[in-house]
């Protein structure tokens, strides 16, 4: 069985003992309900360190008032089994009280500017403050040398990088490639809400991202590429929130149409909101 920690002192002692032995420690934060995408983060973490700690914590501060924190799927037994099979050494399972000793309302909040105002931040106000708030605590609790985040949540990764640099956390941040189903659909806990037909249809998002990259490389201007992608998504039965081209740090639109870029899409299919992205060079 994987070593599971619910007390911070015990977790810290374990990590300290590894470090005394000269071992490098990697960390994979999660909210549970784990799938192969998460397990790939653990496997990648193993390649960057000698020991891997994962956390499962459904973080109340990153849910909006209309997002159902209470109904977020919790699958602790399957998560523990999957983490162990993926090569994780320790599982950190903090309680809400341990994470927020002053209570959720009275907690010290970490607010990351610039990179949080657009895209997911625009449609989920306060979401990234909650993410930065909990990730900063998790970093202080686990004290890893390296932490792994999926590139699927591209803006989240940008927020974490910004925070780590600005607050001088001595932690290397590694972005893990998106894991996709055979049809190209990016793996996500939300895919479980899709019907079989919707799952097939959802693959259009990754095709649309590839078409955006091709169009940029073919010299189409940014505005035309973005408008064309939105139109294509509507025709394929989606309700798009955005289909945009940005520079990799997300702070500016991808003007100039050459160099490193990322295409990002958020779109609803039925009642499920899906996000995906593609990094490319033009
Ligand atoms: O990506 C997630 O699952 C969460 O946002 C994270 C990073 C674990 C913080 O709660």
TrEMBL record:
Pfam families: Pantoate_ligase (PF02569)
UniProt binding sites for (R)-pantoate: 62, 156
GO BP annotations listed: pantothenate biosynthetic process
GO molecular function: ATP binding; pantoate-beta-alanine ligase activity
Pathway assigned to this chain's UniProt record: Cofactor biosynthesis; (R)-pantothenate biosynthesis; (R)-pantothenate from (R)-pantoate and beta-alanine: step 1/1
UniProt key word Ligase: yes
Gene3D superfamilies: HUPs (3.40.50.620), Pantoate-beta-alanine ligase, C-terminal domain (3.30.1300.10)
EC number of this enzyme: 6.3.2.1
Residues the entry annotates as binding beta-alanine: 62
GO CC, any one term: cytosol
Matches recorded under InterPro entries: Cyt_trans-like (IPR004821), Pantoate_ligase (IPR003721), Pantoate_ligase_C (IPR042176), Rossmann-like_a/b/a_fold (IPR014729)
Residue ranges that the Swiss-Prot or TrEMBL entry lists as coiled coil: none
Principal location: cytoplasm
Keywords associated with the record: ATP-binding, Cytoplasm, Ligase, Nucleotide-binding, Pantothenate biosynthesis
Role description: Catalyzes the condensation of pantoate with beta-alanine in an ATP-dependent reaction via a pantoyl-adenylate intermediate.
NCBIfam families in the record: cyt_tran_rel (TIGR00125), panC (TIGR00018)
Additional facts recorded: The reaction proceeds by a bi uni uni bi ping pong mechanism.
The protein's assembly and partners: Homodimer.
Descriptive protein name: Pantothenate synthetase
Provenance organism: Lysobacter soli
Annotated gene: panC
């Amino acid at each position: 069985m994987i070593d599971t920690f619910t007390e911070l002192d015990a977790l810290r002692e374990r990590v300290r003992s590894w470090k005394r032995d000269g071992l490098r420690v990697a960390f994979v934060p999660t909210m549970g309900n784990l799938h192969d995408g998460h397990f790939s983060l653990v496997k990648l973490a193993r390649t960057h360190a000698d020991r891997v700690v994962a956390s499962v914590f459904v973080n109340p501060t990153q849910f909006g008032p209309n997002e159902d924190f209470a109904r977020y799927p919790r699958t602790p037994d399957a998560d523990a089994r999957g983490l162990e099979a993926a090569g994780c050494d320790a599982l950190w399972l903090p309680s809400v009280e341990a994470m927020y000793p002053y209570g959720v309302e009275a907690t010290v909040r970490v607010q990351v500017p610039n990179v949080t105002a657009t895209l997911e931040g625009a449609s989920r106000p306060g979401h990234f403050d909650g993410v930065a708030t909990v990730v900063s605590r998790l970093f202080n609790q686990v004290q890893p040398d390296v932490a792994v985040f999926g590139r699927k949540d591209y803006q989240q990764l940008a927020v974490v990088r910004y925070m780590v640099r600005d607050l001088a956390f001595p932690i290397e941040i590694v972005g893990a490639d998106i894991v996709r189903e055979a049809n190209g659909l990016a793996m996500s806990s939300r895919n479980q809400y899709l019907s079989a037909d919707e799952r097939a249809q959802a693959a259009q998002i990754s095709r649309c991202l590839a078409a955006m990259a091709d169009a940029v490389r073919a010299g189409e201007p940014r505005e035309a590429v973005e408008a064309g992608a939105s139109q294509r998504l509507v025709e394929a039965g989606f309700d798009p929130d955005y289909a945009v081209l940005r520079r990799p740090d997300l702070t500016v639109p991808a003007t100039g149409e050459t160099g490193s870029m990322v295409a990002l899409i958020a779109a609803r299919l039925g009642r499920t909101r899906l996000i995906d992205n593609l990094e490319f060079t033009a």
